[in-house]
Prior knowledge:
It comes from Kuenenia stuttgartiensis. This is Phosphate-selective porin O and P. InterPro entries: Porin_dom_sf (IPR023614), Porin_O/P (IPR010870). Pfam families: Porin_O_P (PF07396). The structure is a single chain. The protein has helices at about 1-95, 95-105, 220-225, 235-240, 275-280, and strands spanning about 110-115, 125, 135-150, 160-175, 180-185, 195-200, 210-215, 245-255, 260-265, 290-295, 315-325, 340-350, 355-365, 375-390, 390-400, 410-420, 430-440, 445-459. The protein is an alpha+beta fold. The protein folds into 2 domains: about 40-105; about 110-459, Porin (Beta Barrel). It has a 16-stranded antiparallel beta barrel with strand order 3-4-5-6-7-8-9-10-11-12-13-14-15-16-17-18. The protein is elongated, with a radius of gyration of 51 Å. The termini are far apart. The relative contact order is 0.09.
Amino acid sequence: MIGRKWRNFMLPNFFVFCVLCMGGVSPIVFAQGESSTDARSEVEELKQQLKLMEEAFARQQEQMDVLKNRIEIISTETKVVVKEETKQAVQDYFSTDEAKEILGVGMPDMIVEYTPDDKKSALSIRTTDGNYSLNIGGRLQMQYEYKDKDDDFGESDTQNIDVRRARLNFGGNIYSKDLHYYVEIDGDKFDVGVRDFYVYWTPLEELNTKIGYFKVPFNRQRLASSATLLLQERSIASEFFDQDRDYGVDLYGKPFDGYMEYHAAVFQGAGEDQADWFQGKDNFDNELMFVLNARYNPFGKYNYYDETDLAYSDTLKATIGASVAFNGKRKDVKEEDYDNITGVVDCGLVYKGISWNNEYYLMSRDPESGGESLESEGFHTQLGYFVLPKKLELAGRYSVIDPDDDISNDIQREYTFGVNYYFRGHRSKIQADFGHLVTEGEEEDKEENRVRVQYQIMF
């Protein structure tokens, strides 16, 4: 009975429990399906959001880089501006009179150059405005000379090694580009002295002025520098008639684009040996020397300061001129008892390595105490030719002097032949020549042979 009641109670309850259990399984499984779908959607959404954030971050990074670059540029520009402003401020201050006075400065800007190929000087110092300059140069000539003298006159042969010329020169301009100065010191044979010292003003090509101690503008060979002679020495005619150097004033110019040249000068007339004047002695004859010179250059300006055609002229250049000196000197010595008039006519040309020069001299000496005048004349012609352009040159000269036209057997003659080799133009060259000198005599002629070798360097 009890068992039947238990069975009747348990069976319905078991059935209800089973129904409830089966009804509850389905919602749980459905819920789990919905949860899986939502998770996938959320992941996709998160990925999308992450992608958007990454893109936004990349754009922000680019903007940050742009800002950094801009900051760096602005900082650099600021530094440059500050540096330039500071530099300009410092320059402005140093340009004031106060700064110059404190620092002890005030010299103008200078340019220093070493120009070893320049014609005369080598070291040049000048201001940037060109109103001041100083040019310094030097020259040395070492010479060997052998003389084969005439035994018939009881003379012995001689040979010497000598410093033929040792010169130091200073030149330039001062106060302006037109006012120049020049000084040359002579150390020949270790007897130091001043060779030239003068100032010259060149406002116009047609009119210039020179004052001081300088070469008399008389014969062209004397005006040519000893550094640029065709042969080692000047001719015997030039040495006899030239007026050398003197104290004076010279007005000169080259009008018509250099086709014409002129000199009008007045000198003390004392010659190159001025020992008496340095001792304070007056002009002993109270007379001055006057010099007039005129020249025509048919093909334009002519460089008569160089006896060679080292420049190897492409076009023909020629010159013809004449000079006269009143109260002139004889062998560079002023004669107290004579009134001298000396004249010279010259001509020359250069063309493609050929140089040809000629000079003819006349001198008239009238005794102040009366008596017959003495007439002298002389001549030289010389020819040079570069067998190797600007390097190897052959040269020859003939010169003659008649010291007194009234004496028939006093004529002197010179025959000289030479060869020159130029290492660096006139700045470094070697010259060798052979000379034959003849002096006529009453009974027999006196003859002498001469050999010379000379090296020149300019610095």
